[in-house]
Amino acid sequence: MNPKITAYYVFIHDHRIGPHAPQFDNMDDAENFANSMRAITECVVSEPVPMVMTEEVKTKLNTGD
């Protein structure tokens, strides 16, 4: 199985406001954001984490008619 990377997340935690996980389209943007957040805040910031598609589900739209 060769999973497709669909996005990159950076997990951030600030003890005053809680956790956040912004999403990025590519690794470069995610890494630049993570490094910037580390430089200007005291938040706990993860390395970029790839999100992979593990299952594709297709459903029909039920309009109720």
Structure in words:
The protein has one domain. Helices cover 22% and strands 32% of the residues. It has one helix and six strands. The longest helix has 14 residues. The mean pLDDT is 90.
Give the arrangement of secondary structure elements:
Elements: E1 4-9, E2 12-14, E3 18-20, E4 23-24, H1 27-40, E5 44-45, E6 49-53
Antiparallel strand pairs: 1-4, 1-6, 2-3, 2-5
What are the defining features of this structure?
65 residues; alpha+beta; three-stranded antiparallel β-sheet; 6 strands; elongated
In short:
The protein has 65 residues and is an alpha+beta fold. It has one helix and six strands, in the order ββββαββ.
